[in-house]
Amino acid sequence: MREHHAYLCEGSMALLPALVASACALFKFSREHNPDLHVESIEKFGIDESRALIEQASLRSTSGRTLFILAIQSITSEAQQALLKLFEEPTPGTIFVLLVPHGSLQGTLRSRFIDYPERLTALAGQGSDAIDFMSWPYKKRSDWIAAFLKDEEQVRERTRTFLDELEAALYAKLEALTGALRQELLMSLGDVAHFRTYLGDRAPSLKMILEHFAATVPTIAANN
User: Fold this and answer.
1) Adjacency order of strands within the sheet including 114-115
2) How many helices (H) and strands (E) does the chain have?
3) What is the mean pLDDT of residues 173-192?
């Protein structure tokens, strides 16, 4: 395989461990105590994060090759504009692999990437709550949300985990569907990326977020 400098993987953030293992093998990078391997999971990637990445990517590596594997849950327009030159004129020997939700990158930045050459499905759809949630009618979803929120211990992090699982479950169903139902799933994936950013707010309405998905995620049987 001819090595490119920028690869894009669109999918659930739950795929990050599988992506790290795959990319290190594909590009021949050691995972143990390797200063030229950079793996990060970033919830909100803004202009400050883009500047930090540009600066980090400009540093000389110890081996002459550097691999950045970044899982980015949301990225601002300003950050994408700031990264254009980095991905258009990369430092020789530097490889970027980005994992982002479907449709996150604008066309100008997206054009700097090629699709990641391996399919990563090992972790997709493993969230049993999310799979069951998709198969339930609205009333059962709403009842589940009420019970979910009643236990207030770490409820924000549990909501974040549920959204990650729902995203993975949606991606797992997406490949087998066509037509209007596929479009509905794509809209739900966009909603996951959108509402996930609210979890960083001081007092997000978790009930509002979860009820949105109860009302809008299409009903799909668990075995479909």
Assistant:
1) 37-45, 66-75, 94-100, 6-10, 114-115
2) 9, 5
3) 86
Residue with tokens 């054009």: 111
Confidence of residue 120 (pLDDT cuts 50, 70, 90): confident
What does DSSP assign to residue 41? Answer: E
Please report which confidence band the pLDDT of residue 129 belongs to, taking 50, 70 and 90 as the band edges.
confident
Q: Is the dihedral of CA 96, 59, 37, 16 positive or negative?
A: negative
6-115, what's its fold?
A: Rossmann fold (3.40.50)
Distance of CA 130 to the CA centre of its chain: 16
Tokens of 23: 């990319």
State the Cα–Cα distance between residues 217 and 198, nearest whole angstrom: 18
pLDDT at 128: 67
**Sign of the C-alpha dihedral computed for residues 159, 215, 184 and 76 taken in this order:** negative
87 CA to centre of own chain? 19
Q: Among candidates 181, 157, 174, which has minimal Cα distance to 121?
A: 174
Global pTM value: 0.66
Residue 203 reports pLDDT greater than 90:
no
